[in-house]
Amino acid sequence: MILLTARDPGLQAAVRRIARPDEDVVADGEWIDRALEHGHARLLVCDDRRGVMPERVSGVPVLYVPPELLSKWDRARKRHDVPPARSGYIETRLRGMVAELSRETTWVDRTLADLGRLAGGPLPLSFRSFARRTLELPARYTDLSEVAELAGLSRGALKARFRRRGLESPFTYQRWLRSLAVAEALSVPEVTVAAAANALGFTSDTNMCRMVRVLTGATPGRLREPDARRWLLVAFARAHLTREALEGWSALDDLFSRRVA
Asked: Of 37, 15, 33, 34, nearest to 25 (Cα)?
């Protein structure tokens, strides 16, 4: 997930082109605040340092592209006999900067890597896109509405797409992924059950505990144990990332991938 506060249109377009197809580019102020407080972003891109306080973005690398630098790039671009598109030129200049500054691995990256090893092979792009978004900002993906919007489908049509490929409901996968996020939040001893529920977008801590218990049989106390993450990953992979399931996800192609014109 990349957070984007820049206002320059060319810079906005360039960042969206650079982002990976399985991640969100969050530009909405409210969701940027939620992501900084409770999400797992790999980078924040801005063209104005105001509002980017160190304590607010703690742990998230910041790529500052000031207007002076954009003007310098504009002048360099115009020296070409046939100037490239402005956003494309900015994209070329940004790529190395983004690669250098981005966090190499987040908790979400490690989780997806572990799931791939447990599944015995590469995770399909459709699953990685679905899972990364749910894990990086669980408060945004609390039900199938946001997921269906990614795919450009209604919730009913999305469920039907899964059925035709022999997959369980996308809601089942979403609940398992959110349970992994609960375990991650509760792995910090100072985080209360109520605080975790609020951070992850549950309506109450009671509803959060009920969902996890019904789905996995685990209580909040069990999720705080050192082996909880590994236990949940193994249970999820064995039940829902079988060879047949991965083939079904592969048949979904890039259904949940970010598309850039």
From this structure: 15
